[in-house]
Amino acid sequence: MIQQMQHLCNECKGSGETISDKDRCPQCKGDKVVPEKKVLEVVVEKGMQNGQKITFPGEADEAPDTATGDIIFVLQQKEHPKFKRKGDDLFHKHTLTLTESLCGFQFVLAHLDNRQLLIKSNPGEVVKPGSFKTINDEGMPMYQWPFMKGKLYIHFSVEFPNSLSPEQCKALEVVLPPKPVSQYTDMELDECEETMPYDVNIEEEMRRRQQQHQEAYDEDDDVPSGGQRVQCAQQ
Q1: What is the pLDDT of residues 134-183, one digit of tens each?
Q2: Are residues 98 and 74 in the same domain?
Q3: What total of structural domains would you count in the chain?
Q4: Considering the domain boundaries, does residue 143 fall inside one?
Q5: 197, 168 contact by CB (below 8 A)
Q6: Domain range for 119
Q7: Of 159, 179, 213, which closes a domain?
C-alpha cells in the first residue's frame, strides 16, 4: 500500500520562499509583519441607533500579499430603567392614582440630560388607563441633525384602590355619572342564578390550560397503534 500525504512546509510555512537567517529582518524575523498597538478613537455621534456600525477602513490585521480589512465597531444600546427608545422617539411609563386620573395630575420627570420636566394635565381633563400623551422635541437627537429631536411619549396607567367603604361609594355616586338603568325587573332578577366572579391572573391561567391540553395530547399519543379506545356507556 502506498499512501500519499501533504503537509505544510516547515521552512517556508507555505509561502513558497525562504529567507536565510542572516538576511532576516531583526524586527519581524522574516514573517513580514510586526505586532503593533494602536489606539482608535471611536466617536459616537448624537442620535446613532442601536446596531449602527462605525468603520475604520484598512485598520485590521495585515498579512503579506493580502488586502487589509477593516475594523468595525457595532453599537449596542444599554437599556434604561425609565425610558425606552424606538428610533428617534422615547417612551416613558407613568402610573397615576385614581384621584389623579380624574381630578388632574402634576409630576416632575428627570430627563436623560438631567433636566427636570414639569408635566401636568389640563384643568378638568380625565386621563384614561392605557392612554398616551406626547411632548414634541423631547425625544432623542436625530442622527446628523443634532438640533432636531424626536418625541417623548408618556404611557399612563391608573392604579385603582382595592376596595371602597359604603360611605365612599355613596360619595362617589353623587359626583360621578349615574349608573345605567337596569333593563330587568326585580322579579326577573330573582329568577336569575347568582354567581360570584373572582380575580385571576389570565397569563398564568392560559399557561396552565395549555399545559393541561399538552398533557392530554401526550396521553393520547401513548395509546398503541391499532388499539381500541374504551368508550363510556350511556345511561
Answers
A1: 999 999 999 998 789 999 999 999 999 988 899 999 998 888 888 887 77
A2: no
A3: 2
A4: yes
A5: no
A6: 83-159
A7: 159
Residues 87, 55, single domain; the answer is no
Comparing CA positions, the residue from 167, 112, 181, 100 lying closest to residue 140 is 112
**Cβ atoms within 10 Å, residue 156:** 20
78, 97, 132 - which closes a domain: 78
pLDDT in tens, 123-146: 889 999 999 999 999 999 999 987
Distance CA 13, CA 126 (A): 78
pLDDT for the residue 219: 73
- Rounded to whole angstroms, the Cα distance separating 83 from 112 reads 9
pLDDT at 228: 54
Contact 108, 117 (CB under 8 A): yes
Domain with residue 127: its CATH number is 2.60.260.20
Asked if 40 and 56 count as a contact pair (C-beta separation under 8 A), the reply is: yes
pLDDT for 199 beyond 90: no
Q: Check pLDDT > 70 for residue 47.
A: yes
pLDDT of residue 9: 73
Asked if pLDDT for residue 80 goes beyond 90, the answer is: yes
Other beta carbons within 10 angstroms of residue 44's beta carbon come to: 10
The one-letter amino acid at 52: Q
Residues 6+ apart with CB under 8 A from 19: 30
Nearest to 129 by CA among 93, 164, 156: 156
- Which string of b and e fits 102-120 if b means at least 16 CB within 10 Å? bebbeeebeeeeeeeeebe
